[in-house]
Amino acid sequence: MARTLAMFTDTSLCIGCRACQVACKQWNELPMEEPQWTGSYQNQAHFTDKTYRLVRFIEKPQPNGELQWLLMSDVCKHCAQAGCLQACPTGAIYRTEYGTVNINQDVCNGCRYCVSSCPFGVVAFNHDTGRANKCTFCNDRIHNGLGPACAKTCPTESIQFGFRDELAAKAEKRVAKLKEMGYTGAQLYGVDSNGPLGGLNAFFLLLDKPSTYNLPEKPLLPQRNVLVDSVLSVGAALLVGVTAVVAFRERGGKGAGDA
Amino acid sequence: MLKTPGWHLLIVWYFFLGGIAGGAYFTAAIADNFGSSRDRSVVRTGYILSLLMIGVCGMLLILDLGTPSRFLNMMMHFKFWDPMSIGAWMLGVFGLFAFVSSALSLSPDERRAALRRRVSLVGIIFGFFLASYTGVLLSATALPFWSDARLMGALFLASGASTGMAAISLLLYLSGDSAGEGFKKVKRADRFAIVFEMAVLVLFLVLLGSAAAPLTSGHLAPLFWGGLVVLGLVIPLLVDVLGARWVPAVIPALLVLVGGFILRYVVVMTHA
């Protein structure tokens, strides 16, 4: 496997210009969709099958009553342990040699299981094609050494793309510097390979706690429940089975096929 | 910020009829192995009902994809830990068992009956599987009200057992066989299953805690409380336990079936 590629989004540098959102639309030929009123400058409200890159505009009330902008260009996290990839019954969702998570559109059969298996609600069902869509890190571009369109276009280098280990080191330095400058809430999200979901290949520098950005504090792999629920189901089956045997058993032990 | 898959009625029907298929098969298998020759109508009805339901289930799953041929994509791949993958395969395997059991139940020959009983002891595992895996499938998603209790499989299994039995008793009633010993036994077994389902549902809601809100106070909450809890569980149980003779025997069975459908409907259609 090649060295893992990753995306580092430093929200402290984002100016909310949405060039990334536009570049994504253009490169990936994503058609227009109905705009959504979100009460803020943000549009759409969330990822859709036609919006893979989304600049979030979060208004955080300050103690003095004013609002503070928190801007965050959000994207598929390309999790090291990806719920969508685990859920996919056809193998359409796969991991590339760069460690990114991609959906093979020809193989996807539109069962939509991945949509609800993403801890971040990224994957979206496309009603026109009957298949699931999400950010690919511009799979075609990165296989030709171009880097994703969003990172390429970002005028403030809020979005950076490169080798994961190098970017992680850069991120650590940057967060230390911001803390020094007095941004006490500055923190990294998803950079730790031993952390939730084995680390995110799109990680973030946030200026506040993750929940302020509508990110889960501790995203969990949905498939962790399979074993427990299966065992409990077997227990339930045994109980129901025993009660049914009691109901059907002939009194006096004259059952036809007492096994 | 999580997403529901946006599944439609086809999937609600699949979850519902899959539960009936599993429940009917295991009821028939238990009647076959532990009951008497007087339960033969239960055995035959159960096996054949489950075979028919499996056939319908397969069609529902294929139709849901919009482009039917894409179902083959699922058959090129096998993930043993993935409920969606293993479920599609097991539906086929269970179908084989239901077919063999149904065919053998048509013959009065005692030697075939012995073989049928043995087959059903293996088939029963797949019956339980089909009734419960759809719940486990929901448990393995990121949506808290589906996954946090980790009891959706057990809940669907209990409901599948109960609706499977209700469907058998309904068919016996319609075929004029409601005076027989088998009918009484199915009703008795269904009473146990309803009580068990109620217990699992209470435990499910307790374990979910505040995560249960979309179900218990969301836009489908009236259906959840009125349709599932009152109509589908409490009333059939009361009618049965109180022995209300003025209520036709078919009414509780019908209510259980309606409740089982509403359970799947509310769970699938509730927004995150």
Name the descriptors.
heterodimer, A: alpha+beta, Alpha-Beta Plaits, 2 domains, globular, B: mainly alpha, Formate dehydrogenase/DMSO reductase fold
Explain this structure.
The complex is a heterodimer of chains A (259) and B (272). Chain A is of the alpha+beta class and 259 residues long. Chain A is built from seven helices and ten strands. In chain A, the strands form four sheets. A four-stranded mixed β-sheet of chain A has the order 8-1-10-9. Chain A has a two-stranded antiparallel ribbon with strand order 2-3. Chain B is globular and about 60 Å long. Chain B has eleven helices and no strands. Chain B has a single domain, classed as Formate dehydrogenase/DMSO reductase fold (Up-down Bundle), CATH 1.20.1630. The model of chain B has no long low-confidence stretch (mean pLDDT 95). In chain B, 77% of the residues lie in helices and 0% in strands. At the A-B interface, helix 2, helix 3 and helix 7 of A face helix 1, helix 3, helix 4, helix 5 and helix 7 of B.
